[in-house]
Write a structure and sequence with these properties.
alpha+beta, FAD/NAD(P)-binding domain, D-Amino Acid Oxidase, Chain A, domain 2, 2 domains, 8 helices, 30% strand, globular
């Protein structure tokens, strides 16, 4: 039976960022991921946007860690040659009735410490994004884009270079407290061939994303349930991708499911349109009953009247781990805390957007919790 100081469950961007941060301080660190590659789920099936922190309630973990995280993520990308760009973005009020909500969004962003926020009129919108229609817009200059996949792999690579043990095809099947340790039962391998292994760790970190509620309940009943919400994307390629210069968003949806169908200029030169947002059954339900292009087009052209349906091509989908059930419009913050029964296990539940942006700040937050367990 192997022993370790730390075992991290989940090889998405947050798990890999935690491995990178903790590998500076401890040896005998394991990161286990049940899929064949790191970052195959929520971490890379999104808009690849680095968010500023304007959307979340002041003093929430989402607000604090996003504002801190965008700075840390850009620095990490620069140091490790991860493709990224600070583009800025416009959040657009489509009509006069939406302007008060736009002003409220500016106020919240300023309260959260986001710098440089400015309100523009229709003439200025036209100067920044000539094809975009709106009566007013909030300019957010710090927002950017990155290659989420390359960011995940850079975190993992640096952690491994420092001696962390990274294991794919490793599914956690049991968690059992044993005094000051936690015994972790793993099944390692693919469907054709697998074997069981046990690791005893002084600290276990549950960063399992969509499956974090299931992992938490391996310790017994726990209060969290993850509800998968699917977002679907279209893409504009070629010359017509230049209809958008940067990032253009509507005001967020009132139900809190998403930030609305937006336009994202990617680091690879296309323009993403999406995501939609809808609850689905199943945490691997990426392709069932896909929307068609017409479902995107009517919504998208309210911001971009020059858009033609022929410009759009169906792209990928993603699933986000929501902590609120269908019909519940309340705000759900990140859960990042020691388990209340087994404090050697640190639970990260409901790490959805802005998790990509916040990943290194989440890692710093977790580092402090791990120090309390191990020191």
């Amino acid at each position: 039976m192997d022993q370790a100081n730390i075992l991290i469950i989940g090889g998405g961007v947050v798990g890999c960022a935690i491995a990178e941060a903790l590998s500076r301080h401890w040896q005998d660190l394991y990161l286990v991921e049940q899929l064949p590659k790191f970052g195959m789920a929520t971490s890379t099936r999104n808009s690849n946007v680095l968010h500023s922190g304007i959307y979340y309630p002041t003093n929430s973990l989402k607000a604090r860690l996003c504002v801190e995280g965008i700075v840390l993520t850009k620095k990490f990308c620069e140091k490790h040659h991860v493709p990224h760009r600070t583009t800025g973005k416009l959040v657009v009020a489509k009509n006069a009735q939406e302007v008060p909500a736009l002003l409220a969004l500016q106020k919240r962003g300023e309260e959260n410490g986001v710098k440089g926020l400015r309100i523009h009129d229709a003439q200025r919108i036209c100067a920044i994004e000539p094809q975009v229609s709106g009566v007013a817009a909030l300019e957010v200059p710090s927002t950017g884009i990155c290659s989420a996949g390359e960011l995940v792999h850079a975190f993992a690579r640096v952690a491994e270079q420092r001696g962390a043990n990274l294991v794919n095809h490793a599914k956690v099947e049991s968690l059992e407290p044993k005094g000051d340790l936690v015994r972790v039962g793993l099944r390692i391998g693919d469907d054709k061939y697998s074997e069981t292994e046990t690791i005893e760790a002084r600290c276990v970190i549950n960063a399992a994303g969509l499956h974090s509620d299931e992992v938490a309940k391996l310790l017994g009943p726990r209060p969290w349930t993850i509800y998968p919400v699917r977002g679907e994307y279209c893409e504009i390629r070629g010359a017509r991708a230049e209809l958008i210069r940067g990032l253009v968003y509507p005001l967020p949806r009132h139900d809190g499911l998403s930030l609305g169908l937006h336009f994202t200029k990617t680091v690879w030169g296309t323009t993403l349109v999406g995501p939609t947002a809808a609850y689905v059954q199943g945490k691997d339900n990426y392709e069932g009953e896909r929307l068609n292009i017409g479902d995107f087009f009517e919504d998208a052209r309210t911001l971009l009247p020059e858009l033609e349906e022929a410009d759009l091509q169906i792209a990928y989908t993603g699933l986000r781990p929501k902590l609120v059930a269908p019909g519940d419009t309340s705000f759900a913050d990140f859960v990042i805390e020691p388990d209340r029964v087994v404090p050697q296990v640190i639970q990260l539940i409901g790490i959805e957007s802005p998790g990509l942006t916040a990943a290194p700040a989440i890692a710093k937050y977790v580092l402090d919790l791990v120090k309390e367990v191990l020191n």
